[in-house]
Amino acid sequence: MADLPLIRLSDRTVIAVSGDDRVTFLQGLVTNDVNHLNGRAVWSALLTAQGKYLHDFIILADGDRLLLDVEAARREDLVKRLRLFRLRAKVELTDLTGQLGIFAQLDSQTGERGTITAVPGGWSLIDPRHAGLGRRLILAEGTPASGDHADWDRVRLRLGIPDSSRDLIPEKSILLDNGFDELGGVAWNKGCYVGQELTARTKYRGLVKKRLVPVQVDGPLPEAGTIVTRDGVDVGEIRSGRGDLALALIRLDALSTPCLLACGDAILSPKPPSWINLPRSEGDTPTNG
């Protein structure tokens, strides 16, 4: 692992949650189980009361505080929203931007996702969403990093992993459309949290009608939000992308059989990864890991 280039994920930063009530505070708010973080990290989200996406983050325990790996550009909004719920809870929220940074290593020999290892000056963890994303590290800001963020991003796109607000629209997106079930972002057996009722209803009543999937782009990469069509009918829209790879939120009926989709001046070929649970036609097989 030491020989792999370290990649600085400059669009991520760290927020600390400390105080005696830090675990119970987050446990009642977020989608994953914060009660069992011993040696593990989890991916989780904060939702509206209507079950719509607000923020997602990776959580791990660091002594007497919890560290949240969050989207840097939207960290102030996240802290503001969390403080609205603090009331009398013994909790402190600290923005560690400038002190700690988020890094990655594309380690192809990783083990079980979410596993944490202490390293000099910080933590190393196998990405809790998918081991194929390699390791994430929380280290001192300014730690030398020679790797290219674009290399990590292309791996993410091939695997179909959403990247916060690049792929999910705050106050609009639904978690289960975007892989949070299969990728371990929701604990179905924990107690109540904000937006739980509608999230559970979406799962157990089979209300998922779209899925975020990788697409191969033939032509110029369309801007995020560009409408995707099949035979002239709107079937979704494109999200984040890089070069000839992108993610697109596509209606399930448009993914039921192999197809080509139009988006701007490009043609998209859906490449659903093996981890995603899609209704499949007989003989259809996943094309990515």
Automatic annotation (TrEMBL):
Gene Ontology biological process terms in this record: iron-sulfur cluster assembly
Protein keywords: Transit peptide
Keyword Transit peptide part of the UniProt annotation: yes
Domain CAF17 C-terminal span(s) in chain numbering: 209-276
NCBIfam families associated with the record: ygfZ_signature (TIGR03317)
Protein name (Swiss-Prot/TrEMBL): CAF17 C-terminal domain-containing protein
Provenance organism: Niveispirillum lacus
